[in-house]
Every structure is written in structure tokens, then in C-alpha cells.
């Protein structure tokens, strides 16, 4: 019983899985940081969406004027949503890919390019950089996830 | 072959993984319930976004007036999006954490505090409670996920 | 050491897990395709949200008029968000379900019905089909995920 438990937790000793765990944690933390970026802009730009969030600014009209949209807040929110749309499939497909037995060097290449591309994408979105900066960094991450999905489907069908 | 299959499905016999499966299922179900809350408000407030959803109210202008936004619907949708932004990283990082071999008691503490915080967050958002109720419940869940990510990165780098 | 690594990567040899990997990859790829649908409508309808995306249309007012919302773009974005709200719980709960040791035939039934329902949902949203086409396809996928969550909780509590 004890040995069985030890065995099943030892996925973390597998080199590819350990690499996946590292990069998946990094990109998920990066995605979570978008919440703080949005909160930062909401507070500094005084642009809120929930009436209860503006209660500290007083009552009635004096607080109501802070219930508004702000370009910087909306930009951070779009960056966050884009992360959800792209980092979530990376984590899901990447986990299946890590468990499908790829070469460590190939796997690391996928994980590192994706992580770099998404960090670049965030800077390109928030600064913002002129296009095609954001578009290219998005496309690179997208292509990496497709490449891993191809490997997963090949492994799942052919093995 | 049979034994091999049995072995690989026995992750569910690992106590930490079983605890993770329980709490991950609970918070994912809680997130899914937000769809029903939104649908409930759309129907009771008669506030829709897709023209085909208002066809049963008649044609032309009589149906068009139900294509509108409603504060309760928008509030439920924001709560749902906030769940996606926070519960998804919990499930991804929590899975890696559960596989990194933590103590059962420490893991249960993480899973239970997160689950409690997110259930509180939903009530704080929907009632709504005055701030900092929603803010604090969000921050507690966020901190738990960061704590698990720290454990994952430490385990992945040091093992 | 070598044998241990091999063992932990052999989850892909488990028939249920292999089936899950196949259908999870398919629905995640389907979700990712929504990005391309949105981009297609943004470009053909000339409806953008970021000022830097319209720079190629010239400067000032001539570019500013393309910073607008378009019904087709918004419809594709709603379909994408609905995928996030439903496919993400499927992947999370489905992974736990696949590891909880279900019968292969039962598991395949769940995975295939969900995948079919979500593909139908996308067509129902984009064409759009009259209701209750979209509603029913959504409800079928939702029910499948609940059914898997029930199995996960039963397995995690009773084992």
C-alpha cells in the first residue's frame, strides 16, 4: 500500500513531466498576474464596474462617476481573456503531451518557446507594441500547442 | 497488460490525489453552476443577447426589446469569468501539486481553504456583500494557488 | 530508475486514458479554432478593438472608424467564451474521471457524446440555428460533465 502510493506520486520524478510542471506553473502564474494588472489599473484610473467597489468614494453621484470603463483596464482584461483562451489549451494538451512519452529535448523546446511567446504577448499587449508584434507572439504560442496536440493524437491512436 | 492498466488507474488510490479529485470536482461544478445562475437571470429579467433566443417572444420590435443587458445578468457573468480566471489555475496547479508528493494534511488545508474561499466569493458577488468581503475571499483563493505553485516549482527544481 | 520513468509515462497505454487524450485534444483544438473564426470576422468585417490593429488602414479618423463592434465578431466571441465555460470543466473533470477507473465503453460514451454536442453547439451558435438547437446541445454537454463529476466524487469517496 505504501509502495503503491509512493509509485503513483513519482510522476514528478519523470524528467518530461517535471519540465511540464515547471513551465505550466510559470504560465499559469503569469496568467494570474493579469488579475493584479487589471486591479492596478482599476484603482489608479478609478474605473470600477461593481457599485459596492466604489462605496469608499462616498455615496450617490460622487461614487457613481467611478462606475465607468477605462481603455487601460479594458486592455488588461483583453490580455487576461487571451491568456485564458491560449494558456488553458496549452496546459491541457501539454499535460497529455508530457504523458505521451516525448523526447525531453523536444518537449523542452515546445514548453520554452510557448512560455517565451506568451510573456512576449503580454508585453506586446500592455505596452502596446505595434503590430505584428502581438499577432506573431500569439501565433507562435498557438502553433506550439497545435504541434503538441498532433503528437498527442498520433501517440493515442498509434500506440 | 491487465496489471499495467490497473496500476496506471490507481492514482485514485493515492490519498492526496483522491482529496484533489474531490475538491477539484466540487469547485468545477460550482463554476458550472454559474451558467445556470446566468440563465436564470436572463429568463426572469428577460435580457438576452442572441436574437434567436427571443424568437418565442414574437417577431420584430416586440422581441427586439428583450435584446438588452441587465445588471443581475452582467453580475452573474462577471462572477463566472472570475471563476474561470481563478478556478482554472487552481485545477492546473493543484493537479501538479497533488502529484508532487505533499503531506496529506498540508494538501487538504490548501484544497479546503481554496474551496471555502471561492464559495464565499460567489455569495459575496451575487448578494452582493459590501467590500472588502469579495476582495478578501478572492485574495485568499489567490494566495492558496500561489502557495501550491511555489511547492510545485520547488519540487520540480530540487528533486 | 529507467523502468520507473517508463512506467510513469505509460498512462498513455491505458485504454481509457488514451480515449480521454484523443477527445480532450479534439475539443481543445475545436475551442482554439474559435480564435481563428473571430480573427476571420474581425478582418472581413473590418471591426477591431485595439488601435494598433488598425494602423495599416492609415492614421487618425480613417483608421478610427474600424474600432467598432460587429455582430458576427461578437457572436464568435460568445461561442468562444461558452467553450471556455464548458470545455474547460470537461477536460478537468474528464481527466479525474479517466483516472478513476471507469469501464472503457462507458467512458467512450461520455467522451463521444460530449464531443459531438460541443461541435453541434458551435454550428448552432455560428449559423445560427433556431432555438432550442443551441440550448439542447449545450445541455447535453453539461449533463455529460455532471455525470462524470458524479463518478469522480463517488470513486474518490468510496474507494
TrEMBL record, chains A, B, C:
<keyword id="KW-0472">Membrane</keyword>
<dbReference type="GO" id="GO:0005789">
    <property type="term" value="C:endoplasmic reticulum membrane"/>
</dbReference>
<keyword id="KW-1133">Transmembrane helix</keyword>
<keyword id="KW-0496">Mitochondrion</keyword>
<keyword id="KW-0808">Transferase</keyword>
<comment type="subunit">
    <text>Homotrimer; The trimer binds only one molecule of glutathione.</text>
</comment>
<comment type="function">
    <text>Conjugation of reduced glutathione to a wide number of exogenous and endogenous hydrophobic electrophiles.</text>
</comment>
<keyword id="KW-1000">Mitochondrion outer membrane</keyword>
<keyword id="KW-0256">Endoplasmic reticulum</keyword>
<dbReference type="InterPro" id="IPR001129">
    <property type="entry name" value="Membr-assoc_MAPEG"/>
</dbReference>
<protein>
    <recommendedName>
        <fullName>Microsomal glutathione S-transferase 1</fullName>
        <ecNumber>2.5.1.18</ecNumber>
    </recommendedName>
</protein>
<feature type="transmembrane region" description="Helical">
    <location>
        <begin position="84"/>
        <end position="101"/>
    </location>
</feature>
<dbReference type="GO" id="GO:0005741">
    <property type="term" value="C:mitochondrial outer membrane"/>
</dbReference>
<dbReference type="GO" id="GO:0004364">
    <property type="term" value="F:glutathione transferase activity"/>
</dbReference>
<dbReference type="InterPro" id="IPR023352">
    <property type="entry name" value="MAPEG-like_dom_sf"/>
</dbReference>
<dbReference type="Pfam" id="PF01124">
    <property type="entry name" value="MAPEG"/>
</dbReference>
<feature type="transmembrane region" description="Helical">
    <location>
        <begin position="20"/>
        <end position="41"/>
    </location>
</feature>
<dbReference type="InterPro" id="IPR040162">
    <property type="entry name" value="MGST1-like"/>
</dbReference>
<keyword id="KW-0007">Acetylation</keyword>
<comment type="similarity">
    <text>Belongs to the MAPEG family.</text>
</comment>
<keyword id="KW-0812">Transmembrane</keyword>
